[in-house]
Amino acid sequence: MPIYNAPVKDIQFVLHDLLKVSEQDIAGFEDLDRDFTGAVVEEAGRIATEVLHPLNVVGDTQGCVMENGVVRTPTGFKEAFEQMKEGGWTAMDCDPDYGGQGLPYVMHTAAQEPFVSANMAFNMYQGLTHGAYSAIYAHGSDEQKQKYLPKMVSCEWTGTMNLTEPHCGTDLGLMRTKAVPNGDGSYKISGQKIFISAGEHDMADNIIHLVLAKIQGGPEGIKGVSLFIVPKFMVNDDGSLGARNSVACGKIEEKMGIHGNSTCVMNYDEATGFLVGEEHKGMRAMFTMMNEARLGVGLQGYAQAESAYQNAVAYANDRLQGRDVTGVKNPDGPADPLIVHPDIRRNLMDQKSFVEGARAFTYWGAYLIDRAHRNSDKDADGLISLMTPVIKGFLTDKGFEYATAAQQVYGGHGYIEEWGMSQYARDARIAMIYEGANGIQALDLVGRKLAQDGGKHVMAFFEMVKTFIKENEGNEALKKDFLEPLKAASKDLQAAGMYFMQNATKPNNALSGSYDFMHMMGHVCLGLMWARMAKAAMEALEGGASDTEFYETKIATGRYYMARQLPATSMHLSRINTGGDTVMALEAANF
């Protein structure tokens, strides 16, 4: 059976050595000292290891079952969900006015990582609820907040997001779900939604569906979309549950992975719904949920790779195969362990350097969200808006890649279900697709985010990289291995951006290079994170840190990323510079 242990020291390193959370001028961060964050992360790790991880294979093998319209979750899920609720883990960063603990979002992110690594499918039940809470919190009326949020914060009631329809995925302007006014402020919602995560289950008393629909007579396309609260059970004025609403699960989707999460077809048959925010402004409200979800999905990408990596390391140390070409390392055994071989080391170092860089990138993104929300910092808000498609797209692409790389370490055993490695690859695969497929993330980055606010935010990012390099150019320990590779990669990224500007009249050139640009930017972001982490580790060693091995390992891992991974920016730039002609050369009939 696979193993999992929360990387508490690595999480603490990012929070304190890199981000220096307790020193930031953000409301609530002054309480985030090492003792407090350590206690939170250690307890989250304990629950992840002891409670959630043993249920991961249970959820994968049993899946969810629908009986007479009722969805049964896998054995042990209900009990584990009760423990999560009782421990307050569903409410860490939620508003205390509705029962939350009011902690910064970065702490919510740090606690979520072990839960996702241990059992991604299980954690989606509370994850979707958190997103629905955020959308109602940002756009709902005071009455709606009072009625729904306390029970959603506690996860007595869970939440969903309903966008996709059978004929309508990314292009939401094509949706057919309709909303007809009842004359009393409510609406009749009719239509079908598909791929609805946690759409129906047996772990909560009520499910609060957030549903996109078109009010009859409204504008055509995406401009006519509105957002509605459609509860599974109606909620009386005193907060008690009333009659069952006309919403039902038609079936559970048979999926490649995340079997422990009930992915449902949801049918709305003149169900009663309540408008969230303004008519025809549904996308603005839904994107509050989507942007948070996209950072969470980016976390899913590297969190699955982290868990797979831990198992690959254990296997590589245990499995005896061949002899080290430089000399026998296990003279008392018939062969040396796999980990002595350079190609196994390359594979593991690829995984390790990605996961640790991705963690820093994601937590930095969460920090920006806190700065934007708690300090009303518009620059931070613009920067995280720019970074969101990179966090989601790059980290999930690479997360899947490295989950399969971990599987490769096992050889044939990685392909056999009893070893459990295929689940990481199967579960990680969905993260590249949902909350906006990664091709859409790339188009969003290049087509919208680069030019946002006149290009202010991407220029601010370039300046951030440039400033870091300039401020540390006298640091010889950093210069050759970290600053020079980062500078070269940043120049590649700027050259790609310049190419897009020079070819503004040929949109296919930019769109054909968008995916490469997203990956290029991802590499530069991880390069910046690694340069910062290397500096932080060096400062810790200079300050007399007792755990020298930990910090030296961090520096060596960063050095690997800068030498072996970051040069990929050159390849991506070469692809971008070829333009769109070769991409668009064939007629549709010739594919």
| Uncertain residue ranges | none
Shape: globular
Strand count, sense and closure of the main sheet? 5 strands, mixed, barrel
Structural class: alpha+beta
Distance from N terminus to C terminus (CA atoms, Å) equals 43 Å
- Adjacency order of strands in the biggest sheet: 4-5-11-7-6
Percentage beta strand:
5-15%
Quaternary organisation of the protein chains: single chain
- What would the average pLDDT be, to the nearest integer? 96
Helical fraction equals 40-55%
Features:
about 600 residues, alpha+beta, 5-stranded mixed beta barrel, two-stranded antiparallel sheet, 11 strands, about 10% strand
Q: Please, could you describe this protein's structure?
A:
- 55% of the residues lie in helices and 12% in strands.
- The protein is an alpha+beta fold and 591 residues long.
- Strand 8 (233-235) and strand 9 (241-244) form a beta hairpin.
- Helix 12 packs across helix 15.
- The longest helix has 37 residues, at 282-318.
- The mean pLDDT is 96.
